[in-house]
Amino acid sequence: QVFYTELMKEAKTGKTVPEEVVKMIFSNISSIYQFHAEFFLPELQKRMEDWHHNPRIGDVIQKLAPFLKMYGEYVKNFDKAVELITAWSEKSPPFQELIADIQKRKVCANLTLQHHMLEPVQRIPRYELLLKDYVRKLPPQSPDRGDAEKALEMIFMVAKHSNAAIAEMERLQNLWVVYQRLGLEDDIVDPSNELIKEGPIQKISTRNNSTSEKYLFLFNNMLLYCVPKVIQVGAEFQVHLRMDVGGMKVRELKDAEFPHTFLVSGKQRTLELQAR
Fold first, then answer.
1. Does residue 23 lie within any of the structural domains?
2. Domain count, the chain
3. pLDDT over threshold 80, residue 230
4. Is residue 30 helix, strand or coil?
5. Does residue 269 contact residue 241 with C-beta atoms inside 8 Å?
6. Are residues 19 and 85 both part of a single domain?
7. pLDDT tens for each residue of 41-88
8. CA atoms in the 13 A half-sphere facing the CB of 226
9. Phi and psi of 238, rounded to 5°?
10. Is residue 60 a contact partner of residue 47, using CB atoms and an 8 Å limit?
């Protein structure tokens, strides 16, 4: 809250850092904070005050656990946020000074902005551990047993959701790098594609009994048959042929002269290839 408010104030009045950058650094932390301050914490406090009559928290956590998925967005953005802080600290001394200034305040407990930002990333795994401990120590006849176990299951799913968000982000990041190497061809760039394997291959020319260096990218829906570019400006490969995986057949060949050869035949055409 302290960092966000101060940086936002500076972004609106000064020239140190654009508003957009501040928003990107803090992602959806305001929503997460509001959820805790106005819903989760008051509900738990109410239970604590009434613990003698109603010793249960499982039902509260069950009711509010779906909102914890908001952390997925924050976790997904975390690496980018830290990169932004580093980049702006190097680029703008006033930005660096402002952050150093805020870090010195008593409220920040001598911890860096990055350190504070890591706390929400670790929050869901902590809830999971606390709940596990709580369930383990509950008396067998506790009225909270059923609800607490169900709540733990829900928190486990939230943690999984958070990890899945990171994995999906990494998948898209890697996919984008592959598309860049292929020269960002319109009909190839599709976020739903999955890269299965890539690597160099020799194309056999039966006409003159020779081989030439090619490169393959196998996706879930297509095989790209490429030629490495000699001058690598921009794209690394040129796509020579795109074959649909649907209806494609692969057959091993027994060739004494060219070992490790196989035939790939698809709707588009047939290729005779040799692996290493």
1. yes
2. 2
3. no
4. helix
5. yes
6. yes
7. 999 999 999 999 999 999 999 998 888 888 888 988 888 899 899 999
8. 25
9. -115, 130
10. yes
The CA distance from 241 to 223, in Å, is 8
Looking at the fold, whether 16 and 99 belong to one and the same domain comes out as: yes
DSSP state of 16: S
H helix runs in the chain, sequence order? 2-13, 19-26, 29-35, 41-49, 58-64, 70-91, 93-103, 113-137, 145-181
Q: Which DSSP category does 143 fall into?
A: T
The position carrying tokens 């760039």 is: 189
Q: How distant, in Å, are the alpha carbons of 78, 80, 85, 87, 207 from that of 74?
A: 6, 10, 15, 19, 58
Q: Which of 52, 35, 31 is nearest to 43 (CA)?
A: 35
Using alpha carbons only, what angle is made at residue 216 by residues 214 and 218, rounded to the nearest 5 degrees? 170
Name the one residue in this structure whose structure tokens are 């928190």.
Answer: 155
Whether 20 maps to a domain, the answer reads yes
Q: What is the pLDDT of residues 135-178, one digit of tens each?
A: 999 998 899 999 999 999 999 988 887 777 777 777 877 888 88
Is the same domain home to 151 and 202? Answer: no
Length of the chain: 276
Q: Would residue 190 count as lying in a domain?
A: no
Confidence of residue 186 (pLDDT cuts 50, 70, 90): low
Read off the pLDDT of residues 104-129 as tens digits, 9 standing for 90 and up: 999 998 888 988 998 898 888 899 99
Distance CA 67, CA 44 (A): 15
CA distances (Å), origin 12, targets 5, 8, 64, 98, 103: 11, 6, 34, 14, 20
